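> forwarded from #structure-qc
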């Protein structure tokens, strides 16, 4: 089965700031990843091709890095990504006076892995990505104060996960 999941947002802001957000992924001053609400993205080396890491039980390796424009990750067959053959990427694209930040996840998997994705992983993934895009929009446009609400299902899944992992960040 195939999985394709896209999150993108067109924002007012500076291409330079958007590039800095992308280039800061997993670093000490990461302002794109919503680590105040989700497990932080951690890599075993600075952001670059070959760096291994992930966030929480999701494991991946950097497969492509074009500074300020795009970073791609290939899933490692372990943890929550076991059985998912593919990857995900972030890209920053200037579009006239706006910036588009996009995240795309694509994978092939068995039906049982797809079911795990549909019921548990996708709702959490979608909430995390919308939190990341909210943060990016705040960084690009300080007047932006919006937040994307979590669904009751996401809140319930986070409650279950926190019971097993008390160190997980609480609901915002």
């Amino acid at each position: 089965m195939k999985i394709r999941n896209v999150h993108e947002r067109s924002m007012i802001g500076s291409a330079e700031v958007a590039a800095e957000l992308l280039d800061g992924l997993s670093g000490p001053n990461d302002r794109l990843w919503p680590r105040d609400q989700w497990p932080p993205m951690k890599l075993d080396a600075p952001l670059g091709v070959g760096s291994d890491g992930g966030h929480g039980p999701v494991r991946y390796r950097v497969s492509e890095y074009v500074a300020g424009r795009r970073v791609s990750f290939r899933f490692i067959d372990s943890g929550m990504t076991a059985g998912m053959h593919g990857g995900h990427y972030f890209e920053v694209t200037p579009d006239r006076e706006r910036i588009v930040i996009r995240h795309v996840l694509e994978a092939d998997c068995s039906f049982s892995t797809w079911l795990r994705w549909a019921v548990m992983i996708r709702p959490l993934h979608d909430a995390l990505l919308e939190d990341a895009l909210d943060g990016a929009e705040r960084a690009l446009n300080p007047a932006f104060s919006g937040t994307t609400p979590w669904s009751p299902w996401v809140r319930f899944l986070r409650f279950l996960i926190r019971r097993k992992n008390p160190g997980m960040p609480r609901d915002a």
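QC bot note: The helical segments are 15-23, 111-140, 152-164. The first helix runs from residue 15 to 23.
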